[in-house]
Amino acid sequence: MIDLSVNLAGIKLKNPTILASGIMGVSASSLKFVEENGAGAVTIKSIGPTDRTGHKNPTVLAFDNRMVNAVGLSNPGVDTEVHIVKEAHERLNVPLIVSIFADTIDNFAVVADKLLETHPKIIELNLSCPNTDNEFGKMFALDADDTRKVITLVKKVTQGTDIKIFTKLTPEEEDFAELGKVVEDAGADGITTINTIFSMNIDIYSRKPILSNAYGGISGPAIKPVGIESVYTLYETVSIPIIGMGGILTGEDAIEYIMAGATAVGIGSGVYYRGIDIFQKVTSEIEDFMKKEGYKSIEEMRGIAHNS
Ligand SMILES: Cc1cc2nc3c(=O)[nH]c(=O)nc-3n(C[C@H](O)[C@H](O)[C@H](O)COP(=O)(O)O)c2cc1C
């Protein structure tokens, strides 16, 4: 009997696939739809302190092997999102990861505090969105001190609850291993990696960047090796669980992440490339591989790329 379940910081997932934040997950219905298509857990689009319309179109470009987006964290703001999260909890059978972002360190605490009444199991701190400004003019995750401060503050807010705090990082931080240690020492229960990476496309006929925001974040198959490297590096450094993502389209991609050390895997752009049932497809491809290679559990495969 093959066991596809995983234990993510004490929370059981029936399979290791998770809907990444920002794709589909804007309402209870869309999150439910992803659950019905086989995801082991789902992440809501990042929630901020107030409503944001995001950037003007065009905001998303899709190519054969990559997407580039600058959606700009559009969301209706935490006061409205509280109701969406409550409804999602009522309708979902799989765990919901509640992703949050803010423009200041203090506002992370404000958003987390307002969400307490929804009893989230996991709050994911999006410290790594490349498309928005904050009080420092750069991503929080590019500064170890800011990263530590956000985690410490949010942990204070969630003290006395069993909410797990995951921190979403960017591989653009030079000393990624050191950042991982900072995150773990600050008390985070897990790490999500990677977010999209800074990028740009230029239309050579109109002679200007294509995205209205000029800069965007690249995702999809082209970034998979970067995601794998970041999981591999963190696995050598920290003992908290890692959700690995970036470019996963197939079961083989997911297994690569697991062998690098991921406890679970996120799928975002893959929904565009393989359809909404990518979660079922990836899970059954993982199972086929395990059968063929004689693995009985996901746990047996985790981190084994480090053994050679
Ligand atoms: C259109 C789009 C919107 C995104 N929005 C968010 C977001 O709101 N919060 C977040 O943490 N990550 C966001 N991401 C990043 C994804 O969650 C993921 O980290 C990244 O796309 C890499 O995974 P992938 O290659 O499977 O897409 C977004 C990605 C895309 C493509």
UniProtKB/TrEMBL annotation:
Cofactor field: FMN
Positions annotated to bind substrate: 45, 69-73, 126, 195-196
UniProt-annotated location(s): Cytoplasm
One of the protein's GO biological processes: 'de novo' UMP biosynthetic process
Dihydroorotate dehydrogenase catalytic domain ranges (all copies): 4-290
Cofactor note: Binds 1 FMN per subunit.
GO MF annotations, alphabetized: dihydroorotate dehydrogenase activity
EC number(s) stated in the UniProt entry for this protein: 1.3.-.-
InterPro entries on file: Aldolase_TIM, DHO_dehydrogenase, DHOD_1B, Dihydroorotate_DH_1, Dihydroorotate_DH_1_2, Dihydroorotate_DH_cat, Dihydroorotate_DH_CS, Dihydroorotate_DH_I
Catalytic reactions of this protein: (S)-dihydroorotate + A = orotate + AH2
Listed pathway(s): Pyrimidine metabolism; UMP biosynthesis via de novo pathway
Principal location: cytoplasm
SUPFAM superfamilies: FMN-linked oxidoreductases
Superkingdom of source: Bacteria
Enzyme class (EC, first level): oxidoreductase
GO cellular component: cytoplasm
Active site: 129 (nucleophile)
Matches recorded under Gene3D superfamilies: Aldolase class I
Record family assignment: Belongs to the dihydroorotate dehydrogenase family. Type 1 subfamily.
The protein's name in its UniProt record: Dihydroorotate dehydrogenase
Organism: Candidatus Roizmanbacteria bacterium CG_4_10_14_0_2_um_filter_39_13
Gene: pyrD
